Amino acid sequence: MDKLTFLSNADSSYIDGLYQSYKADPNSVDFGWQKFFEGFDFGQTSEGGSVESVEGVSDHALKEINVLNMIHGYRDRGHLFTQTNPVRERRKYYPGKELETFGLSEADMDTVFNAGVEVGLGPAKLRDIRQLIEDTYCSSIGAEFKYIRNPEKIKWLQDHMEADRNQPHYDVDQKKRIFRKLNRAVIFESFLGTKFLGQKRFSLEGAESLIPALDSVIEKGASLGIQEFMIGMAHRGRLNVLANIMGKPYKTIFSEFEGKMYAEEDPELQFGGDVKYHLGYSSDVTTEDGKSIHLSLAPNPSHLETVDPIVEGITRSKIDMKYNGDSSKIAPILIHGDAAIAGQGIVYEVTQMSKLEGYRTGGTIHIVINNQVGFTTNYKDARSGTYCTDVAKISSSPVFHVNGDDAEAVVYAINLAVEYRQKYKTDVYIDLLCYRRYGHNEADEPKFTQPLLYKAIEKHPNPKDVYAKKLVDEKSIDQEYAKSVEKEFKDYLQEQLDIAKKTDKLDDEIPMFGGAWKGLHAAKKADIYEEVDTKVPAKEFLKLANEITTLPKDKKFFRKISKLFEDRAAMVKNDNYDWAMGELMAYATLLDEGKRVRISGQDVQRGTFSHRHAVLTLEDSEEKYIPLANVNGGERFNIYNSLLSEYAVLGFEYGYALANPQALTVWEAQFGDFYNGAQIIVDQYLSSAETKWKRSNGLVMMLPHGMEGQGPEHSSGRIERFLELCANDNMIITNCTTPANYFHLLRRQLVRDFRKPLIVFTPKSLLRHPKVVSKLDNFTKENFHEVIDDTYAKPTTVKRVLFCSGKIYYDLLEKQQADKRTDVAIVRIEQLYPAPVDQLKAIRARYKKATEFIWVQEENENMGAWPYYCRIFNRTDLEFTEHISRSESGSPATGYMKKHAVQQEAIINKSFE
């Protein structure tokens, strides 16, 4: 025929793309394709690129194109027609995979097509070609990968899956190992259900194939060079993972069910504990070929997916600290629920971090326990996407949808996943299609909302029984073997339970202060108030100050940057250091002492208020120059502008600090107000992890704070919220007023032999205030001051003492100096928590004639430090006689500059009336 209209219902842009490559360079396609394309040209194409006509092509040649189109269609859409759901019929998708969809028919089944070269068969019958792609893409594993924008990755996946037909090939020993792991998973859950009737355990029942999958990841990963896995997961199946993968003793888990408590190391530390399915664990396991693998399971709260950035941060910290930047030695594994991965925004944020320089970890293995129900919500009401894993497309990560009843397929898919991760250093997803045997917990009735589903589940055999039948049928094992394996493990569990019943107290099997934390300890009250020597010798200080203010002469910098650094050099010469220099010198001195400094957040390299300029961009290129990166040989200073996220980034940095207490890890909010986008991290980790999980952390949060007429969203870091979370010396809350005090505060974080989260309410307008400066002696002869007393007022004549914190001090100082009020003293509380009680008592004693002790703040009455100080000092010797503030409000600040100025003036005037 001279011209044929191409009527295939499927998209043939794939073929067209191959042909275009062939026309540009015949050698760019496989030899089989070269032969196929010889002798004819494609005609007109549609706007989308699909073939509409072919010049001089026979009927057979046209069908060759249709066969190729069918192969492409299976690769692209075969996952929609798999046998992956163990308890439900799959939804129908159109067009389907019928021969007619691709312009073929039964009459063509025994015709030999050269298109077989595409799947490695060479010229082959359509029947054989179709069977191969049917086995590969439409059986127990469905693969989504065609959206990946890298032809090499696509080919790698196609070659591996099509060579195996996406079918596992295991010997009898391997099958027995899978069976034993599956047996342990199933029997462990049934044992708990029998012995601890009615207790919550959030069982893995229905998804037990997760256990042989994780076991295989460890074995396969070890063979590929992985030495450590960092795992994060929610409560569903956690006890099973702890016992059967992590190696947490069964007797310990049973003791927790029995209500036994961990032995109290010291009552002063006030360990509160947490439910057993939130606890973390770490262990070393040995693979079959003798390799030692370290496993860590991060503790986590009930807030689903919150642990994700924590795990990524811990992993990155270990990559930097332990593995010299080699991400192939450690891999994060995140285990999700289907409703959570689809519904929680933190998943999207963490996914967007995965390839960014400051946050990448070499690829994460994501496993979704897809039990098709979120608490009581049907999956159709839980997402708009086709799959719960559609977030994977953001990072062009492949997804394997696997039938949880097919244990071998699960193991095969996850082995392929870890191999892909190691080769390409990107994320990969396993969607484990399974079910939940019970409701949200064991006491919940799922039939209230899912009656039909749970009728099917009740009749459905567990994955162990399904696999046992398969092995018996194929004569890999016999019934006696299956029964003996089951009995042996049940007897062992009973022995462990008998031991647990005789146990009085549990020993802490996860010491906090080992490994990277060796040499540190849990802080007691006396430690908190002990003065720490953070001074730096003047000679060393000046050497570093000159070093970080000198720009290389062979690089061309923006004129304003050059001027800025000239001004900084002048500060050193004139002994007058501003806020930015105080901060940068803290980093420089820590780096000089061999510590690591890591800072991230939105626009932190320059600083929201253009004060930091830690990273300089050359004027005529994109080249970067980082003065601090050259201190002490470099490589220990990292500062990253983050993606526009608070939640994930703060979680990441918390994880980073958790793994490396010898690094000063800093997260800075663009404005203090924005930290509340990460409130969950503050509530569930920062403020409470030490009490819940005995996990210390030295993360620094910098929150720009201050009332400056900038409106409700650029004024308050919510001092009141942090203070209401404070108890048992769990955090340090500060609001510094001098560069030197800030310098000492940051250094103190690493000089101390314990770690506490540090919340710093940092200034905005004070960054360039002429009075906010420090002298060399303040850095080299002093330490951190929790309280700074007045040096102008005369103690013998003072009748009123104003206590304040932060920026308002300079407004009060201006008034005091202008009016020469030596009878009014202004005292700055630099550390709001732990409250410096003894120092405040000493200051009150100093002003013997004073009758008014007034708290002054620029925040509203129901905000700032006042609600906390009012409460803790109520009916004590430190009780304030009055407070001065803005009136209470539901909004942190006014958006009108004139109104702001009137309010501020009223506070200052009232303070001196």
TrEMBL record:
The answer to whether keyword GTP-binding applies is no
Classification via CDD domains: TPP_E1_OGDC_like
Q: Which GO terms describe its molecular function?
A: oxoglutarate dehydrogenase (succinyl-transferring) activity
SMART domains xref list: Transket_pyr
UniProt superkingdom: Bacteria
Q: Enumerate the Pfam families for this protein.
A: 2-oxogl_dehyd_N, E1_dh, OxoGdeHyase_C, Transket_pyr
Q: What are the residue boundaries of the Transketolase-like pyrimidine-binding domain, all occurrences included?
A: 577-769
Write out the entry's keywords from A to Z. Oxidoreductase, Thiamine pyrophosphate
Which Enzyme Commission number(s) are listed?
A: 1.2.4.2
List required co-factors: thiamine diphosphate
Q: What does this protein do?
A: E1 component of the 2-oxoglutarate dehydrogenase (OGDH) complex which catalyzes the decarboxylation of 2-oxoglutarate, the first step in the conversion of 2-oxoglutarate to succinyl-CoA and CO(2).
**Similarity-based family:** Belongs to the alpha-ketoglutarate dehydrogenase family.
PANTHER family reported in the protein's UniProt record: 2-OXOADIPATE DEHYDROGENASE COMPLEX COMPONENT E1 (PTHR23152:SF4), 2-OXOGLUTARATE DEHYDROGENASE (PTHR23152)
Q: What is this protein called?
A: oxoglutarate dehydrogenase (succinyl-transferring)
